[in-house]
Design goal:
9-stranded mixed sheet, 835 residues, 6 helices, elongated, Jelly Rolls, mainly beta
Length: 835
């Protein structure tokens, strides 16, 4: 509580002091006197943001909004408002003519003194005119200056604006703040210096002096002095406008002997030249080729010891289309690094589509000085980033205190131009070993895989199964694969995948990029165990197909591509999920409804068991997603999107778990009954076989007696039946068929006979899940649950009466082409394993 009271008291005291300080300011009166022949003019005027008329006026003998005081005049000035600094500014200009007389060399004073001037934002201007052969030098002893670009401001509000002349044309050299490295600026043919001081700053010195120099034969020379490690950003004259035509500008850098300097161009443009050539020239200590000439697009020198000069040379521009020449660059001075004496060979001479880029990592900006990291070609052409083209060979070195601040990005293209040549071929997506030997970390290695449209597709096959990165189960590996479509207009990101999952293969329809992204230095050890192969396969219609074999220990999380933005319109993706024989899969969706609203077309999900070909179709726009269901066989999940309305997107997350298969009570009962029936059938078959064998063994055994012509005569007639009954075997039959005995009962009215009915079981002979289910037409209004009429597998338990069989019946017509299969009438839910 005491602290709060103390704070309130301090705030109140500050307010009272500020009011007391400003109270006499409202009644302040300034007397301004300008000596004769001083060449000084004072102009008090409204600020650039003020309207032409205001309630605040300048009060002299009358109220005005603009006042000019010339040399030899004395005027008393006051204002009619309490805060004139919010409305008025003041310019004090001194004209110095060095062409008709001697120049007032030495330190430049502030005239009149700031104590005589009203408390306004003040701009002191010194306009020095000199002959073309005379050079003038502005010296800034303390503090030195720091150049700023358009739109930047100085922290203390003190700004230096310096201009030169080319005949009658004024050229802006630059705008500067305090606390920099610029110590001198030399110009020829005059100079115009403007010092802007804010109203609240009481400063009595200009901070610079003027000296006479011999002709410099160029527009200007800017000297930048470094006393230790640091950096400076400098710009060409008239930046960001065009550099004057056919002019020369030089920067001189003073570097301590124990430090090294490197130059990097941040922004530049070149003009259209008719004569000569725009270039930069370096005078580097110890160089045998001074001046060293570079184009603006070349890599600039680095790792330079000692003082050096940099010059920008313009050209004769095309009068019809001159263009713009401008340059903004940075000089970084730091201690030499240990890596600067080591060279590394990067040989891409045998590579036709592989390019490398070494560039700085992205770190948050810091106010403290941070040594730069440069990559040098042939130890002198250094830059913060370099790109090595295919077919090249370079020796590179590094000027960097910490190589972890750099990283490497690479890109390679694998193009299938003729499907007859590449169909069926495979390529291993491995990082070349010579790239991994560089001392910088690999960030991304991208393969662009290109195939002919509508003739070839791609399959990614990993040595170890992959896991899809989701929030529920994030990848925690040292590297991952990012798979995305590169088809123009197809904004489709399939996902991020790492080792240790259940995805055995990823098939995509068209061109893609596969990016290996690293997250830890030990990725090389992990990558040695993971070999990713791309194969060219026949074209298919789905955008992607995932082959999944779940692990019986972990959940398998799967989600639709473009999770953050939603599945693209009219896209289709399938998952082929394998279920082992001794397992049962449970399919679960994260949410009950998708929230999708279609603008055109329909969105469907199809779940199809591959063995029975039973399909379940769900409308993703209207219906509730299925609750957790058990799948006893391998199955497909296909999702097809419509064209959703704005703000709606299709994103589904589901997971699959495996549990051991167990037999339920019905299966046990069926098995017991079937076993008993089989036992009885075996016993009956054995009895029949025994009887039949005994029948064959007993020769002459009378099985049946039948005489269709009995002898009705007296036995005294010996000629009628010569043998006795026991000796005559004409009445003995080994086998009597029922149709022979009871055939008259089977006879129709027309004399024909019925043929016996025979039932025949026909096993399923079709394909077993080679292709994903075909989605219904987009405009279809099919019911949401439908089962096909395909036959079930013969190895499952006996079905109900609706189990399909084929029966052969004799009819009057030819019915050989008639479909005799019986359709399934109801939806069969998968049975849950017994607990």
């Amino acid at each position: 509580m005491a602290r709060l009271n103390c704070g309130a008291t301090i705030a109140l005291l500050g307010t009272l002091l500020l009011g007391a300080a400003r109270l006499p300011h409202a009644k302040e009166t300034s007397e301004i006197y300008l000596p004769h022949q001083s060449g000084i003019t004072v102009h008090i005027k409204l600020g650039p943001s003020q309207m032409a008329a205001t309630f605040c006026y300048i009060v002299t003998s009358r109220k005005v909004t603009s006042l000019i005081i010339k040399a030899g005049e004395r005027k008393t000035v006051s204002f009619s408002c309490l805060n004139p600094e919010n409305h008025y500014v003041m310019e004090i200009q001194k004209n110095i003519d060095c062409m008709s007389g001697l120049c007032p060399f030495g330190e430049v004073p502030l005239q009149p003194p700031t104590s005589m001037l009203p408390t306004l934002n003040r701009t002191f201007i010194w306009d020095v005119k000199a002959h073309k052969r005379i050079g003038l030098e502005l010296q800034f002893s303390h503090p030195r200056l720091r150049q700023i670009g358009p739109g930047e401001s100085c922290p203390d509000g003190v700004t230096h604006s310096i201009s030169g002349r080319i005949d009658a044309t004024e050229v802006q050299i630059g705008t500067f703040c305090s606390n920099g490295t610029v110590s001198r600026i030399k110009m020829q043919e005059g100079v115009k210096m403007a010092l802007h001081l804010p109203w609240f700053l009481h400063r009595n010195i200009s901070g610079f002096s003027i000296a006479n120099r011999s002709s410099i034969k160029r527009l200007c020379i800017i000297e930048s002095v470094f006393e230790g490690e640091g950096s400076a950003i400098l710009m060409s004259a008239n930046y960001p406008e065009g550099f004057p035509e056919d002019e020369l500008m030089t920067w001189q850098f003073v570097i301590p002997a124990h430090l090294r300097a490197s130059v990097s161009f941040l922004n530049f443009n070149v003009s259209n030249c008719e004569k000569k050539e725009e270039r930069v020239e370096y005078y580097i200590p110890g160089s045998t080729t001074n001046p060293e000439v570079f184009k603006l697009e070349d890599k600039q020198p680095g790792n330079m010891a000692g003082n050096f000069n940099l010059s920008l040379q313009g050209c004769d521009q095309d009068a019809q289309n001159p263009g713009i020449l401008r340059l903004r660059f940075q000089v970084l001075v730091q201690h030499p690094q240990n890596e600067s004496n080591k060279t590394y060979l990067v040989d891409l001479s045998k590579e036709r589509t592989l390019s490398l880029t070494i560039e700085p990592r992205r770190f948050p900006l810091s106010r403290k000085f941070v040594p730069g990291c440069f990559v040098c070609l042939d130890s002198r052409a250094c830059s913060t980033n370099i790109t090595l083209a295919p077919g090249s060979r370079h020796k590179i070195s590094f000027l960097c205190d910490n190589l972890t601040r750099l990283w490497l990005n690479a890109e390679k293209t694998i193009n299938c131009q003729d499907h007859r040549y590449c169909l069926g071929r495979s390529y291993s997506l491995q990082v070349p070993p010579n790239i991994l030997q560089l001392p910088v970390d690999l960030h991304d290695f991208s393969w662009k895989l290109l195939v002919p449209k509508d003739s070839v597709s791609l399959a990614l096959v990993p040595a170890q199964k992959l896991q899809q990165h989701t929030q529920e189960r994030a990848c925690n590996a040292s590297f991952s694969y990012l798979v995305a479509s590169t088809v123009p207009g197809k904004n489709l990101y399939f996902g991020s995948f790492c080792s240790g999952g259940s995805i055995e293969q990823i098939q995509v329809k068209q061109n893609i990029s596969v990016t290996l992204r690293t997250f830890a230095p030990n990725f090389q050890q992990d990558m040695a165990r993971q070999d990713l192969t791309v194969s060219f396969i026949p074209h298919f219609k789905e955008d992607s197909v995932f082959m999944v074999t779940p692990d019986n220990k972990n959940k398998v999380y799967l989600r639709t591509p473009n999770w953050d933005r939603g599945l693209p319109s009219l896209s289709s993706v399938s998952w082929n999920i394998s279920v082992p024989r001794d397992q049962v899969a449970c399919l679960t969706f994260l949410k009950e409804r998708t929230g999708l609203v279609c603008q055109t077309g329909r969105a469907f999900m199809i779940i199809q068991e591959q063995r029975s070909h039973a399909e379940e179709i769900f409308s993703l726009e209207e219906e509730v997603l299925p609750k957790p269901t058990f799948r006893h066989h391998s199955f497909w999940v296909n999702i097809s999107n419509c064209s959703p309305v704005n703000g709606k997107q299709l994103d589904l997350l589901f997971w699959v778990t495996l549990t051991p298969r167990t037999m339920d009570l019905n299966v046990v009962i069926i098995a017991v009954v079937g076993g008993a029936a089989l036992l009885l059938f075996a016993l009956g078959l054995i009895i029949c076989c025994v009887k039949k064998n005994r029948t064959k063994e007993i020769k002459g055994l009378t099985v049946g007696v039948y005489n269709d012509n009995p002898n009705t005569q007296m036995p005294m007639k010996p000629n009628k039946f010569q043998k006795g009954r026991k000796d005559n075997e004409s009445h003995v039959y080994d086998v009597i068929e029922d149709t022979m005995v009871y055939g008259h009962l089977l006879q129709n009215a027309n004399g024909s006979f019925h043929q016996p009915e025979m039932d025949t079981y026909r096993p399923f002979q079709g394909p077993m899940g080679d292709c994903p289910p075909s989605p219904p037409p987009i405009c279809s209004r099919a019911s949401t649950k439908k089962l096909t009429t395909d036959e079930p597998s013969p190895d499952i338990p006996p079905e109900s009466e609706s189990e399909p069989y084929s029966f052969s019946h004799p009819t009057q017509g030819d019915r050989s082409l008639e479909n005799t299969s019986v359709p399934l009438l109801g939806v069969q839910e998968p049975e849950q394993p017994a607990k």
